[in-house]
User: Fold VOC family protein from Streptomyces cadmiisoli.
Amino acid sequence: MSSRLFAISFDAHRPERLAHFWSGVLGLERADDSYDGVTLLSGNDAGYRLGFSPSQAQKVAQNRLHFDLTSVSLEDQQETVARALDLGAQHADVGQGPDASHVVLADPEGNEFCVLEPGNGFLAGCGFIGALACDGSQAVGYFWSKALGWPLVWDQSPETAIQSPNGGTKITWGGPPLMPDPGKDLHLDLAPDDDQQAEVERLLSLGAKRLNSTPGKDDSAVLLADPDGNEFRVLTRQ
Assistant:
């Protein structure tokens, strides 16, 4: 048994509006999926979608998960920043300092993301969404490697990173201490290869915890938390 990463999903007060923003920034098309929200086809070798799921949660702190977008030149970096600002992004201060070579922005619902300078060797070949950068422990990196069947491509305590065998976006963890729960964040949506319940049991055996379903969400999905307490969902087979 195993799961594939079906979507990296945003909690969204206005899913259509947020999907429009990210579609414009990344140049992505809408998918036609049965999903409790909106999905975009990422076109990434890692094979996931971007999901925008309705949520009433309020953002109270910096996200634990954010995208690192790559650039091929300084002009390309500047164009991405300008496009995002035109679509409703704002500059964000997460302590990066005035000398930082990357640009930190927040989307129209406050989700932080970085537009990296060119020449990042670690994310070379990973695509426009070079990384989903996460605040998390080494243990949670090991958990997700086993959960998704993605090998570790970096394991230098306390930092870990995994990547699909097909390539594409890397998922990275920077180690403790964990930031506070932001209340409204990005989450992973998994699609089991076969039986949903059997896959849930496998994930529980790896260290996941079962959570109560959120009212108004897809009742067919099972809500779990990884060993660091980050919520994720196991969908019915997609």
